[in-house]
Amino acid sequence: MRRREEEKGDDGMVAGLRDGAGRVVEYLRISVTDRCNLRCRYCMPPEGIARKSHHDILRYEEIVRAVRAVVPLGLTRVRLTGGEPLVRPGLPDLVRMLCAIQGLRDIALTTNGQLLAQYARELRDAGLRRVNVSLDTLQAGRYREITVGGEIGPVLEGLAAVREVGFSPLKINAVVIRGMNDDEVADFARLTIDEPYDVRFIEFMPMGEIGLWSPEAVVPEEETRAAIEALGPLEPAPTPATSRGGEAWRLRGAKGTVAFISPISRPFCGACNRLRLTADGELRPCLLSDRSVDLRAVLRAGACDSYVRAAFVEAASAKPAAHRLREGVTCPTRTPMAAIGG
Ligand code: SAM
């Protein structure tokens, strides 16, 4: 890794993380584990992914140290993901340590919800305020099929638990895949009428050698939206500043909202403000690029904070301007989402 001093501005502050295209990086998605308690057919190969050894995975203290070092560069938000973040013991401890970092404004979690009922209170007490739950079907039998044996009951209990302890907004992420769950788009939208859920419909991306992806399997935003509009017109709803991609919409009188995250039909690379940190300490400039910076080596070499910051500066400057999915160009090694951290 090249050593690069971060620049200082006139006020002596460390200059922010800006990439070559002028985008400001302020958001880090942190995968805390490569392990998962589900085997979603479109995300993981059936045999799972090669597990990293315990020693290779960043310790919570290492994650916290990296985040603390980079907040002066303008990092304001982190999201914990995986694998399944809640399978890693002591996740609320990490949340608590991150919450204590001055300048970090937003800490969120993406989970499949299987263990959420058990951890909702502890996470809330630790300072977590935002949770996204991944749920691709509302049908128990189909849930078992998609997740290869998972039960939907614990997810529904998890959603109830996070509402009970006061999390808001409550986001549900559903990847829409043709022939798998595209017939449920209207059911998810109907759910928002009486329940305050914000359902985000995500286009299926070609990640990993899982063989389920094809251009035909992608349900474009336009089609998903049409299925919802068959229930009634969509009205613009206030979109949270933290939202990625699409604006929020509401069916008339609905308590919740819907939104569309459409990396293929409406790419949002121009507004991308994130880096990713894999569980074993690789900093990834882009989900769809194989470039990475070995942050773990820097952390374990006993380097001072300016070297940690230099690793982030290097990763930010390696962000490609845009993905080329529409031209059929994907990540060369097609690393599964579960290995990078979705
Ligand atoms: N286990 C956690 C969960 O289920 O939310 C976090 C990790 S999971 C990899 C994060 C998100 O990535 C999930 O919402 C999952 O549906 C999504 N995902 C996985 N593979 C995807 C793909 N090929 N295209 C779009 N989204 C995908």
Structural commentary:
With 342 residues, this protein is an alpha/beta fold. The chain has helices at 60-70, 91-99, 116-126, 140-147, 153-164, 185-194, 221-229, 295-300, 305-317, 337-340; strands spanning 27-31, 77-81, 106-111, 130-134, 170-176, 197-203, 234-237, 248-251, 257-261, 274-277, 282-284, 293-294. The chain has a twelve-stranded mixed β-sheet with strand order 7-8-9-6-5-4-3-2-1-10-11-12. Helix 3 runs parallel beside helix 5. The two termini are 25 Å apart. 42% of the residues are buried. The chain binds S-adenosylmethionine (SAM). S-adenosylmethionine is lined by residues 36, 42-43, 81-82, 84, 110-112, 134, 173, 175, 202, 204-205, 207, 337-338, 342.
List the helices and strands and how they pair.
Elements: E1 27-31, H1 60-70, E2 77-81, H2 91-99, E3 106-111, H3 116-126, E4 130-134, H4 140-147, H5 153-164, E5 170-176, H6 185-194, E6 197-203, H7 221-229, E7 234-237, E8 248-251, E9 257-261, E10 274-277, E11 282-284, E12 293-294, H8 295-300, H9 305-317, H10 337-340
Parallel strand pairs: 1-2, 1-10, 2-3, 3-4, 4-5, 5-6, 6-9
Antiparallel strand pairs: 7-8, 8-9, 10-11, 11-12
Helix pairs in contact: 1-2, 2-3, 3-5
The chain binds S-adenosylmethionine.
pLDDT < 50 runs, ≥5 residues: 1-13
Label the structural class. alpha/beta
Helix content: 25-40%
Strand order of the largest sheet: 7-8-9-6-5-4-3-2-1-10-11-12
Helix segment count? 10
Compute the number of strand runs: 12
Shape annotation: globular
| Bound ligand species | S-adenosylmethionine
Largest sheet: 12 strands, mixed
